[in-house]
Amino acid sequence: MPKHQIIRDVGQSLLGVLRSELSAAKSKAKAYLAPPTGELLKKNAPCLVLYLYDLRPSFEVRTNENWHLEEEVTD
After folding, report:
1. C-alpha span between 38 and 6 (Å, rounded)
2. What is the domain partition of the chain in residue ranges?
3. Which run of H or of E encompasses 53?
4. I need a surface site. Which of 36, 43, 52, 58 has the fewest CB within 10 A?
């Protein structure tokens, strides 16, 4: 899976959760998945802006853990 697709999928999943929470709280704010710009914030206030700019796996393994890490690449 290409990295940009993973970021998109994670972003869409988080956006769905945030929108559900805002709806459950009966908030007037809306959630957006977009780069935070002044124009976006002015036009859509009140709002919550989710912007994922860097998403990567953590390969940190503690010395007392025995993990085998591998990256799967699929088409």
Report:
1. 27
2. 3-50
3. none
4. 58
